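REQUEST FORM: STRUCTURE PREDICTION
Request ID: SP-0412
Submitted by: Lab K.M.
Chain count: 1
Length (residues): 470
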Amino acid sequence: MLKQSSNTHCFMTLGFAMALCLQPAPLYGQSANDLNPIVPAIPNASFELKVQTIRPLKLQEAIKIGLERSPQLQLSQISIGKAEAVLRQNNAGLFPTASLSASYTYNQTAQSAVSAALSAQSFGGASGLFQSESVPVTGEVSLNWTVFSSGLVGSRILAANESLKATRLDYERTCQDLINNIITAYYNLQTADGNVLIGEASVRSAEASLKDATAQEKVGVGTRFSVLQAEVQLANARQNFLQYTNQRIVSQRELARQLNFAVPTDVNAADPIEKGENWEMSLEDTILKAYRGRVELERYLAQERSAKASEASYYASVSPQVSLFFTGQIYDNLVDPVTGIYSGYSIGAKVQWSAFDGGVALAQADQAIADAKSARLNYIDNRNTIRYAVENAYSTLLTSTLQISTATSAVVSAEESLRLARLRFQAGIGTQTDVITADRDLAQSRVNRLNAIIDYNKSIAALKRATGTL
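STATUS: Completed
RESULT:
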């Protein structure tokens, strides 16, 4: 037993114990890449909401901007960070826990003062031997380590690890969906741009037909009926043009929404409208690649494994748990010149068994079983959906390939037919109805060719999305 008469050493002991207990806890889990979203301010005036710039973008540029600015992708990143934190939390169960405590108390009561005075009188006035006050300082350190958990810790770690895998796979799915949405919005904008050009050409052609009909009526070789037909044709062409223009505005805003610009921005499609790359794989090879490459299927399997591990952890929670413990104490009275510092400790093992919890663990295990079954059924349903998506896109791809060839030939023939119909009308051997019909056929052929090209490109994108290769 160590005895110390000097109060200086006692104060040093107190300071050391308090320093251990008052030391700030370390901060775990902080990452330099932590996301800190900024909430956009509400505009102060309505003019701030006007479109401030127009950006021509290629498809790859739009995809890059969308990936950088997407809130959905940032949400997925946050979910990954949360799942990693859950895994670290469960990994902590493998290590012992330690706790420190210290206390400082000053005691002086009337009863102790009377007792000290009476004791001093009994010993002939030796008051220095008896104290009416006490200043005890105590410190304690505790260690606890669960060395056997019936699989509880391991099951929780496995469940958290599989949940993290599923979350990371969901991030990849979100990324693929985002790219696919941007591609679709971009192709829709290209379709709207193409329709606007077709509408402009139809308006110019209708204006030329009206001019020819009016000129023939003035020289007496045409009729008022032909002029009226031409006017109706021009009005219809302008109506279609206005509709196409509105659709382009809507498509521009939709693409801009996908790209999440900080200020109101319109987007123009800078890529030319042309047939994209070829798809070399057969239908069966494409389906097989989709089964192997889609992260959704692996994500559902990870969710199933996580649910099964959670089920095991719930069963383990009502099984025996064995832990080792150690507790050490220290005591010192700072104003007692006789006694010094005393210490002690205890060490042992503890078995804890929650043999009956009212059925809570069994109910939780049943929930985990239901989650595992749901994940398996989602896997089956998604697998069928993937096959349908591949078959649908592949069929559309083959059809669009043929339509592009047919529509291209039709455009050439329709252009020549309109030229001849207009020459025949100008020569007085044709009718205005022939011109209107030829003009309508040309516009329809151009629309068909545009739609065939866009459908082809969308089919390529759909096949890439189905195989997880966007």
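NOTES: Residues 321 and 352 are 5 Å apart (CA to CA).
Reviewed by: T.R.
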